[in-house]
Write a structure and sequence with these properties.
A hairpin with a 4-residue loop joins β10 (204-205) and β11 (210-211). The chain is elongated. The strands form five sheets. Strands 1, 2, 3, 4, 5, 6, 7, 8 and 9 form a nine-stranded antiparallel sheet that branches. 34% of the residues are buried. It contains four helices and 23 strands. The chain has 368 residues and is mainly beta.
């Protein structure tokens, strides 16, 4: 009997470890959100800035920010107690709203919840839900409010699990991002997310009178040193399913003279057409949901890749390089990296954001 119990316990631990490893493997960027309380302001990607706060978190990675990414693979998990839990959304000023979408995990541990507004310093329940379903669309009538709180009662002592929450005005999501901006794979297996703001979208590029519109991925994990520079052997993969709309198989490198001429011109002139691109050898993928990805500085493109080719998430499309850069023009192996641009409805992802908000948005984007 004891052996059977020990075996079952071992299997349970193994299952938990495997689940934890699977969850961790889906996180390709560090967590840039503060535990329990933070703000979200994603410029044109989200309709309005807001601050959120939750009553508790199991860990920094499993906290309130996971409610606003439209991603069912991420969760808010609370502390393992018998206390009630709550989530507060603060828009900072009056907002029109009329419904809340709530997506619970299968093991949510929720007996009931209330949707509340603050009325003369007291919380007033707009809606009460007993024994809720896994997916709930709660319509509470047209109101204007600054603060909205969802208050949860647990079925039993333990943690509470919630996947998503959206405060809405009709079909418009007032909190977080839409589903087409999450679930993408990081473009280089084992590569590290850039630490410096200079490598993020929106950073100035004074040497060519421009703005950085992508993410520069330069390093990958290394067991001995912690990190090491990428090389031309490192593969680039498609971040999601899509159709190839550009593949520069006939790319011709610039000479040192033509590179310097391009730099000199862009310092003092507005660029109205690009025929020799600092992005070098490129692939563009249309993901057919308003999102396009552009892979720059490639050293090679896979032979199977052609305009019109359908690619799958994770498929190798080429290798990292330094094409389009001064190093390539001078036949050097320096400056090898991937410059990845993400375009949403014709604008680059990260426009108008400071570095920290850009990091948060990209964390959502690269969470599978």
């Amino acid at each position: 009997m004891k052996r059977s119990i020990l075996l079952l316990f071992s299997l349970f631990l193994c299952h938990c470890s495997t689940f934890a490893a699977a969850q961790n493997s889906k996180r390709h960027t560090p967590n840039f959100f503060s535990p329990k309380k933070d703000s979200i302001d994603f410029s044109f990607i989200s309709p309005t800035p807001f601050t959120y706060q939750v009553s508790s978190c199991y860990s920094a990675n499993l906290c309130g920010h996971n409610l606003f990414d439209s991603n069912s693979h991420t969760q808010w998990k609370t502390e393992d107690t018998d206390k009630d839990e709550w989530l507060l959304v603060d828009f900072g000023k009056k907002r029109l709203m009329n419904q809340v979408y709530l997506e619970l995990a299968k093991n949510a541990n929720i007996l009931s919840f209330q949707i509340q507004v603050l009325k003369r310093e007291k919380w007033f329940a707009l809606h009460k839900e007993q024994d809720p379903k896994q997916k709930q669309q709660i319509k509470f009538g047209n109101i204007d409010a600054t603060l909205l709180r969802v208050y949860f009662r647990k079925k039993r002592k333990g943690a509470l699990y919630i996947n998503n929450l959206k405060v809405q005005l009709n079909t418009a999501n007032l909190t977080g991002i839409n589903k087409n901006l999450t679930g993408y794979r990081y473009p280089i297996p084992g590569a590290l997310f850039p630490k410096v703001a200079y490598s993020l979208p929106g950073a100035p590029r004074a040497y060519r009178n421009g703005t950085h519109k992508g993410i520069d991925i330069i390093y990958k994990k290394d067991a001995a040193k912690g990190q090491k520079a990428l090389s031309i052997q490192d593969p680039i993969i498609a971040i999601a399913d899509g159709i190839i709309v550009r593949a520069d198989h006939k790319y011709v490198p610039m000479t040192p003279e033509s590179y310097q001429d391009a730099i000199d011109y862009t310092k003092n002139h507005r660029v109205t057409f690009v025929d020799r691109d600092f992005g070098g050898r490129q692939i563009w993928i249309d993901h057919q949901n308003g999102v396009m990805s552009s892979y720059n500085h490639m050293s090679s493109i896979a032979k199977s890749i052609r305009i019109g080719t359908r690619v799958r998430k994770g498929q190798k499309i080429g290798t990292v390089g330094n094409s389009g850069l001064r190093a390539e023009a001078e036949k050097s192996n320096k400056s090898i990296h991937l410059h990845l641009e993400i375009w949403v409805n014709g604008e680059f992802l990260g426009k108008g954001l400071d570095a920290q908000q850009s990091r948060k948005l990209l964390q959502y984007f690269f969470t599978e």
